[in-house]
Write a structure and sequence with these properties.
9 strands, Rossmann fold, alpha/beta, 2 domains
């Protein structure tokens, strides 16, 4: 596997074999991510965290991954404190950052911003979420969570529940699941169905794809229940948001008929769509999922910036 110097803007930037290799590398990083001895593969490297949209888990897990590997970070956590407020373009900001760091991790509210950043930078750019677009490293840690529980990514029935229209995590994950041969079951309010362009591409790739509006039935059949919150910040009209907020909720009674090995996942933060009582059940996997972000991002950063490579 050779990822050195490459941009990771979409999950499509990684082949199935590359994803498999990254997940294998991440498994070897788990102990180091827990505080054990870690390889200093990023010693002397600087990674810029350019976060122009709020983030907790993504930014902090990337920073943890860099520091576990002996590197250091430059962090933008408030767009209002940058020259963007003075009218500087994102292109110029990224061009400048690429002269200060060995790689750039970008989160931005506008879809397509990561691709623009990749054109501006002569260093690797990792997309940490671009609006309703893609979130490829979230997909990698989601896959790691599923693989850790089931030992495979193939032949599973994965229910994607919630905001499938604006939810960038499910956009990336659905394509990866299709690549590995899992069945994808879509369950959402009618106004938040998976966008047609994603649906068409999945079908073109031969994905096992169907819709199941009956949530109790979807849960009974699922191996993985991937829940997303309804993202108020993505709605152009607040009235549309009010019509769908609170339209689904996962609780202990709903899970009573689930398969014993079902795992409930969520990219977090949650906003009422998973009851706190679910945390104490064997189905809850979302906090483990959040932890696995660190070894997965350690594996990716090592592949992009490890000692044998010098970037682009």
């Amino acid at each position: 596997m050779s990822l050195r110097g490459r941009d990771i803007v979409s999950i499509h930037d990684l082949s199935r074999d590359e994803i498999t290799a990254l997940l294998a590398s991440a498994r070897k990083m788990v102990r180091a991510a827990e505080g054990g001895r870690a390889p200093a593969t990023l010693a002397g490297k600087i990674v810029a965290m350019a976060f122009f949209e709020p983030s907790t888990r993504t930014r902090l897990s990337f920073e943890s991954a860099v520091q576990r590997l002996g590197g250091s970070c430059l962090t933008i956590a408030d767009a209002g404190a940058t020259s963007l407020r003075k009218g500087e373009s994102l292109y110029d900001t990224i061009r400048m950052l690429s002269s200060y760091a060995d790689a750039i991790v970008l989160r931005h509210p506008n879809e397509g911003s990561a691709r623009l950043a990749a054109r501006a930078s002569d260093r690797p750019v990792i997309n940490a979420g671009d609006g309703a677009g893609q979130h490829p490293t979230q997909t990698l840690l989601d896959l790691a969570t599923i693989q850790e529980r089931f030992g495979t990514l193939s032949g599973l029935k994965v229910v994607l529940l919630g905001d499938l229209k604006y939810g960038r995590t499910v956009h990336s994950l659905a394509h990866a699941l299709a690549e590995f041969g899992s069945e994808i079951v879509l369950s959402s309010p009618p106004s938040l169905r998976l966008p047609e362009e994603h649906r068409a591409e999945l079908q073109h790739r031969g994905a096992k794809l169907r819709e199941e509006p009956d949530l109790p039935k979807a849960v009974r059949e699922a191996d993985v229940l991937y829940v997303t919150r309804i993202q108020k910040e993505r709605f152009p009209d607040e009235g549309e948001y009010r019509e769908v907020v609170g339209s689904y909720r996962i609780d202990a009674p709903l899970l009573a008929a689930a398969k014993p090995r079902l795992i409930v996942m969520h990219p977090l933060p949650r906003a009422g769509e998973i009851a706190a009582e679910v945390d104490a059940t064997p189905h809850a996997a979302y906090f483990r999922q959040a932890f696995l972000a660190v070894p997965v991002r350690m594996a990716l950063l090592s592949a992009l910036l490890g000692p044998a490579g010098r970037g682009r």
